[in-house]
Design a protein that fits this description.
The complex is a heterodimer of chains A (211) and B (470).
Chain A: H1 2-18, H2 22-47, H3 50-78, H4 90-111, H5 117-139, H6 143-164, H7 170-198
Helix pairs in contact in A: 1-2, 1-4, 1-5, 2-3, 2-6, 3-7, 4-5, 5-6, 6-7
Chain B: H1 2-33, H2 48-78, H3 83-105, H4 109-127, H5 133-166, H6 175-180, H7 187-205, H8 213-220, H9 223-252, H10 256-278, H11 283-304, H12 307-338, H13 349-352, H14 354-368, H15 374-388, H16 392-417, H17 432-450, H18 454-466
Classes of the chains: A mainly alpha (211), B mainly alpha (470).
Chain lengths: 211, 470
């Protein structure tokens, strides 16, 4: 069951890699977070742990509901052109994402003992998510996509933590959630200010500071 | 009326930071001199190293709070800041310093990560405080680059906790627990984890080639914030690297791996900084690159290792924090007087602002590593340690880059300090609070250049005790 959810997370990640518009990217992020929520819920059920239920609840509230809502809200408010501005077309991006998965698989085999295939799969999934997040940050032009890329990377880290380290201590988890939430708020504020000052949110044109 | 109120707020704020400084000194005294540990209740870890960093943050925080009185009230009077925004500044300032205290005081590495991320988030507002195009761009770059870096550091932290769970240790991210089981950890996992830690927190510490956010953020932030960024924020990230480095060394049974990485990153930072110092046009960017240079010196010192080098490193952390703060305060005065950062357009600072000019001149020599100032002493200690350890090539390279940076800084700054002041520049007094901050910091620079006072020596030795494994 958990392996199926992990496969769904990987597929959701490919959706992110091929998204051409900001709305699609936000929706992809919400879908990915939803599967992450299911994964945490499954773990909570298996381990019968109250703390994990709370973590799952927080994950749903923040990453499936509040953050995607606020991201699409700010998109609407600043009336920005919906196109992402791709440095790399979707086919090539998909190939990159597949290469990431393959590389992550090799790396995971190195890291975990050979008999533990389930862990290798979840490790592969988390590295794929982290790398695709980084890829979105680098190869897409809008300031908003960097926010989403960061969030995707954070999702990958969350998956990694829950699959290999058995999750982080409860209060650390809460602190990290708080940090992510605050950083999204702050990044949104800055996107707003960039849009107001520069009348665009194209980060390739932020080139005043040099040397 | 409003202007007076902001000034009173600033003075009250400085008094608060004086109390914090006294408290941090008392903690240092208690831990280092009386050798009486402070109970952390498992949440805090207040050993010699933490207390030393708390003391450094206390000093720079107090100096920046004093300097802010004049700086902020002048901006309010000139109409650049509304009184409400000025009050906001003080709140963000406190949050920023509070989160830095959190970084060096908590035991749990997950909370430490969260606190470091918090320093980025809070200070990003202070970098983009004036909402000009440049400052918003700098703040965006700062927050994005540092957040990505710090996510990698979180990845490294998770690998460490994975290593602990593989070794059958307790499910905990406390540094003390991690250190206790360090010898049993899987060496390969620890090696990989430390790479992520070094790249992640190294981004925040301004190590090249992840330093690109640093000159932008330092040059666009308000002057007291630049001082805090450069003086202590970079050091808190180094603190995190040191904590993980101790675990790595204990796990691998020797400092080899850690020391090679530190020397490599340190020398690259030194080289890049020394080169770019030569061609800078912007005054505050010049100081920012000098920070990268000094972080490089600290990393090379950590890489050389041994009690003498680590003593030098700790002293250098304090010396650089104090000197760089003085320089940023001076640059703040100069920039607000001349209305620009461009060094080609600034002339005759000594003539137009005698006090700031003199202090800035002395600070420049101190920063470049000229005797009898403090940075000379700490750099000398690191270099002696390098030669006695037989690391001739590394120490030689360190000396070469230091000489290059020395020439570059002196050359650049002498051009703005001397010469005639622009015509029509009215003589106005320099704010008293800035003078007080200068005097406070210059006492440290002068005293530490000749001797390390007994209490501080105990403090550094206590911190050095922790760094035994490096």
């Amino acid at each position: 069951m958990e392996t199926l959810i992990i496969l769904a997370i990987i597929l959701g990640t490919y959706l992110l890699a091929v998204a051409k518009r900001i709305t699609a990217l936000v929706r992809g992020f919400a879908i990915q977070s939803f599967f992450l929520f299911l994964y945490t819920l499954a773990r909570a059920h298996r381990e019968n742990s109250f703390e994990l239920y709370i973590v799952a609840g927080l994950l749903f509230a923040l990453k499936v509901a509040v953050i995607p809502y606020s991201l699409s809200n700010i998109c609407r408010k600043i009336k920005v052109n919906d196109n992402l501005g791709l440095f790399m077309n979707t086919q090539l991006s998909l190939i990159f994402a597949l290469v990431f998965t393959y590389g992550a698989w090799i790396f995971s085999k190195m890291l975990v003992p050979a008999q533990d295939a389930g862990m290798a799969v979840s490790l592969t999934a988390s590295f794929t998510v982290i790398l695709v997040g980084l890829f979105i940050m680098v190869f897409r032009m809008k300031a908003m996509t960097q926010t989403i890329g960061l969030l995707v990377m954070e999702n990958g880290i969350f998956l990694l933590a829950s699959s290999i380290a058995g999750g982080m201590p409860f209060f650390v988890e809460i602190a990290i959630f708080m940090d992510v939430f605050i950083s999204v708020i702050i990044l949104n504020i800055f996107v707003h200010r960039i849009n107001k000052l520069f009348t665009h949110i194209d980060v390739t044109k932020l080139t005043r500071l040099k040397g | 009326m409003n202007f007076q109120r902001i000034k009173t707020l600033g003075i009250a704020h400085a008094v608060l930071f004086f109390c914090i400084l006294c408290a941090s000194a008392a903690m240092l005294y208690r831990v280092a001199v009386q050798a009486c540990p402070i109970p952390g209740c498992g949440f805090f870890l207040l050993d010699g190293l933490s207390v030393f960093f708390i003391f450094v943050i206390g000093i720079v925080g107090f100096a920046a709070a004093v300097y802010s009185i004049g700086y902020i009230s002048r901006d309010v009077r000139a109409g650049n800041l509304s009184p409400r925004k000025a009050a906001m500044y003080y709140i963000l300032f406190d949050l920023f310093i509070g989160s830095m205290f959190m970084v060096v005081a908590v035991n749990n590495l997950g909370f430490m990560w969260a606190a470091i991320e918090m320093t980025t988030l809070v200070s990003a507002f202070l970098v983009g405080f004036y909402r000009t195009k440049q400052s918003i761009e700098a703040a965006w770059k700062y927050i994005i680059i540092c957040s990505v870096g710090i996510i990698l550091a979180l990845l490294g932290t998770i690998f460490f906790s994975y290593a602990v769970s593989v070794a059958g240790g307790p499910k905990s991210l406390n540094w003390t627990d991690l250190y206790a089981v360090a010898a049993r950890l899987d060496k390969n996992i620890v090696r990989i984890a430390f790479i992520f830690i070094l790249v992640g927190y190294g981004t925040k510490a301004g190590l090249a080639p992840m330093h690109t956010w640093l000159p932008d953020a330092h040059s666009q932030a308000l002057a007291p914030i630049s001082a805090l960024l450069s003086g202590v924020l970079l050091k808190t990230a180094l603190y995190a690297i040191i904590r993980f480095g101790l675990v790595v060394n204990k796990c691998l049974g020797g400092p080899g791996y850690f020391s090679h990485l530190m020397i490599m990153f340190g020398l690259v930072s030194l080289g890049i900084a020394a080169g770019l110092l030569l061609v800078q046009k912007d005054l505050k960017r010049l100081l920012a690159y000098s920070s990268i240079e000094h972080v490089g010196v600290i990393c090379v010192g950590l890489g050389i290792g041994g009690p003498l080098a680590t003593f030098g490193v700790l002293l250098h952390i304090l010396n650089h924090a104090v000197t760089k703060s003085l320089m940023f305060f001076g640059a703040g005065n100069i920039v607000s007087r001349y209305g620009q950062h461009n060094m080609r357009m600034i002339h005759g600072v000594v003539q137009s602002m005698p006090f700031t000019g003199t202090m800035f001149l002395a600070g420049t020599f101190a920063l470049a590593g000229f005797p009898p100032f403090s940075i000379f002493m700490s750099e000398l200690l690191i270099i002696i340690a390098g030669f006695t350890k037989g690391a001739y090539g590394i120490t030689g390279a360190l000396l070469f880059f230091l000489a290059l940076a020395f020439g570059a800084v002196i050359y650049q700054v002498s051009r703005i300090l001397f010469g005639r002041q622009p015509k029509g520049m009215a003589r106005i007094g320099e704010p008293l609070s800035a003078k007080l901050a200068f005097i406070f910091l210059s006492i440290f620079i002068l005293v530490l250049g000749s001797t390390v006072p007994w209490v501080l020596k105990c403090g550094i030795s206590a911190a050095n005790e922790i760094l035994k494994g490096i």
